[in-house]
Input
Amino acid sequence: MDRIEKYVDAEILEADRKIAIGDLSSAFRHLERAHVLGQASTYHHTRVHWRMFRLALMMHSALEIWGQFIRIIGAATKTPLGIYPTGNTGGANVWFFKPMPVPDDLQEILNQAKIK
Output
């Protein structure tokens, strides 16, 4: 297990809990947090976008479905080259390459995992 995986998994697990009770927008927020944590890893980055895509299908959001489809391709092809915007939350409501501030609690996790 890599140093960030348990944190990404925790956010995904919380998203799953929110999905189970029908709170899809809270679930998406947890996936956004997982995205910020995992975006330096091709595996985690692509995995989180896949989960966002699946959630977008549940939400019946054409914009988010299309946005996540494109982002899955981008995560799989650009992340290995080190091309990703730090802090970007990964939703279709945010431009692909827009860097964003990392929330303090997530920055602390990234610092502990030595991921910048």
